[in-house]
Amino acid sequence: MKPRSSVMLSVLFLLVAAAAGAQDQGDPTLTEVWEPIPPQIDPGDATHPPSDAIVLFDGTDLSAWSGRDGEATWTVAGGTMTVAPGTGDIRTKQGFGDVQLHIEWRSPTTITGEGQERGNSGVYLMGKYELQVLDSYESRTYSNGQAGSIYKQFIPLVNATRAPGEWQTYDIMFMRPRFRNDGSVERPAMMTVLHNGVLIQNHVTLKGSSVYIGQPEYEHHGDREPLVLQDHSNLVSYRNIWIREIE
Question: What CATH number does residue 88 fall under?
Answer without folding.
Answer: 2.60.120.560
